[in-house]
Amino acid sequence: MRVYISADLEGVAGVVSPGQLMSGPAYEEACRWMTAEVTAAVRGAQRAGALQVMVNDAHESMTNLRLEELPPGVEVISGKPKALGMMCAIDEGWDLAFLLGCHARQGSGGLLSHSYSAATIARLRLNGCEVGEVGFNAALAGGCHVPVGLVTGDAAAAAEALELFPAIRTVAVKWACGRQSARTLTPGEACRRIEAAAAEAVAATVAKKANDAGVASTAGAPSGTRDVIPAGAIASWPPQPPYTLEVEFTSPVMADAVAYMPMTRREGPCRIVMEQAELPALFRAFQAMLTIAGAVAP
Ligand SMILES: [Zn+2]
Ligand 1 center to residue 13 CA distance, Å? Predict the structure, then answer.
């Protein structure tokens, strides 16, 4: 049983303001809370039978986790740039993915909401469906046949996950009062809930795999198959190939520069559209768009 974790910071309990996201004493404290939530998820997963757990540090510098505080038996992907960014190293070898510390997409009412880059991205649509980080990252996991077993973050991020996967397990750790204020659980209570949910998610997957293997051995069906879509999910998610990404930038100058990229189509002052047969290729191209747009940002 192998569990992949992508960990962001904005959706961690107690984190409510931009001053906690970049540097300084408040940021150092937030990193410890983030590490504690990841630790809780790892402990829950291990308790329920996960033999391998890897955590991808997915916020800003991607060097936020306090490695010495993490429990034994976990590996960390740290730093950037890295292919697939927030979902670096996701592939078909994982049995289950967790998205931790999530925030809602740009333009939503969520706490600290944005989509990969508040400065450059106004809106993202994947195969016609408006997505933020939860949606795009979950699509990448789904494209690798890895179900997302747990999403944690503020209530708006959890709601966004439930829109896509109505049966998904979520833990809301805070409720926005505004974009930079929230009613929040304490770090200790958030960790308690996250550890319990992580254990439940892994236990459910272990039970499902055992059941699938039993059904396969009695019915002669091929073994080793996994559901791409968790039970109860809407049929259209994760999206199926070919993949179309519509990116609405915050300034036309960003679209001007991104339009130099091959295989892009300009569809408006700020809008670039790209189609790809493979989702990882589309996400890598999106990473290049973010880099280019950031370089010419006014
Ligand atoms: Zn972040």
Answer: 13
Ligand 1 geometric centre to CA of 264 (Å) = 27
Cβ atoms of residues 33 and 68 within 8 Å: no
Same domain, 98 and 13: yes
Domain count along the chain? 2
Of 114, 123, 169, 174, which one is the catalytic site residue?
114
d(CA 290, CA 287): 5
Same domain, 102 and 149: yes
Query: Are 263 and 275 contacting, i.e. CB atoms less than 8 angstroms apart?
Result: yes
Cα(220)–Cα(217) distance, rounded to whole angstroms? 5
Q: What is the pLDDT of residues 173-198, one digit of tens each?
A: 999 999 999 999 999 999 999 999 99
In this structure, is the dihedral angle defined by the CA atoms of residues 173, 44, 170 and 164, taken in order, positive or negative? positive
Query: Does the annotation count 114 as an active-site position?
Result: yes
Q: Is residue 114 part of a domain?
A: no
Domain that holds residue 9: 2-106+134-208
- Distance, CA of 87 to CA of 175 (rounded, Å): 26
User: Would you state the structure tokens that stand for residue 141, as one six-digit string?
Assistant: 């996991």
Whole-number Å distance between alpha carbons of 218 and 204: 21
Q: Are 281 and 202 in a shared domain?
A: no
Per residue in 36-48, pLDDT (tens digit) is: 999 999 999 999 9
